[in-house]
Specification:
It is a single chain. The chain has two domains: 106 residues, 2-Layer Sandwich (Alpha-Beta Plaits); 102 residues, 2-Layer Sandwich (Alpha-Beta Plaits), CATH 3.30.70. Helix content is 21%, strand content 31%. β9 and β10 form a beta hairpin. The longest helix is centred in the middle third of the chain and has 14 residues. The chain contains five helices and 15 strands.
């Protein structure tokens, strides 16, 4: 855990240079570890995505539990999607029209048919607590080393983090090798820092959903749980 004191935020106008394109989808189920398969399916339609700064493919998330169901942990086990589930693709504004080439396509994601339907644009959130489910970590890197490396990269973006929490190591399977990752929550950013981080991301492998940040509840609630 990394912790410093709270700061105040000034009024801020949210830029729209990078946005999320949120597609309605029709898909019954996907494996828990679907990042590689989803990336390959999306990039087959949008081959420019891996070379476009700021672009990435969010992994598809479902609730951790509900109605007696608990999210499985095994990578090959299935997640069952609802009609409210969305496919999010983060792109620079000038690529929005290109990204909508996905509309009407049926993607093969690890043998599961995923039909891409209409899309809406979601601007980045004017929120100062952000969360990424997957940030790439180095082999053998413990929690402290991971946070130290994150601070160095954030500083290179002009971001001075005050409060950060990371999760246990998880891997994303790819044909080349397993990609080691940890979740990362960063709180009490300035709004300028929040926008910079959401637009730029952290670390490599955006096409696998790594280093893409979303809004999250305030870290004070997490601290109360820890204490």
């Amino acid at each position: 855990m990394f912790w410093q004191e709270e700061t105040k935020h000034d009024q801020y106008s949210v830029p729209d240079a990078v946005v999320d394109v949120a597609f309605q989808i029709g898909c019954r189920s996907l494996p828990v570890d679907h990042a590689w398969a989803l990336s390959q399916a999306v990039c087959a339609v949008l081959p420019w995505l891996t070379d476009e700064p700021g672009a990435g493919v969010h992994t598809i998330h479902v609730a951790d539990s509900g109605n007696g169901w608990m999210r499985p942990e095994g990578g090959a086990e299935l997640l069952y999607l609802s009609r409210r589930t969305r496919l999010l693709v983060r792109v620079p504004r000038h690529r929005v029209e290109d990204a909508q080439q996905l509309t009407g396509r049926t993607l093969d994601v690890a043998g599961n048919a995923l039909t891409v339907e209409k899309a809406i644009l979601k601007p980045l959130a004017a929120i100062t607590t952000l969360f990424s489910r997957y940030v790439v970590s180095a082999a053998g890197q413990d929690e402290n080393a991971f946070l130290e490396a994150a601070v160095r990269e954030l500083n290179g973006l002009g971001i001075r983090p005050k409060k950060m929490l990371c999760g246990i190591e998880k891997t994303i399977a790819t044909p080349a090798a397993a990609v080691r990752t940890r979740s990362l929550m960063i709180a009490e950013l300035t709004l300028e820092e929040s926008m910079q981080l959401q637009q730029h991301g952290l670390g490599p492998s955006r096409h696998l959903g790594c280093g893409l940040f979303l809004p999250h509840k305030d870290i004070k609630e997490i601290r109360q749980v820890l204490e």
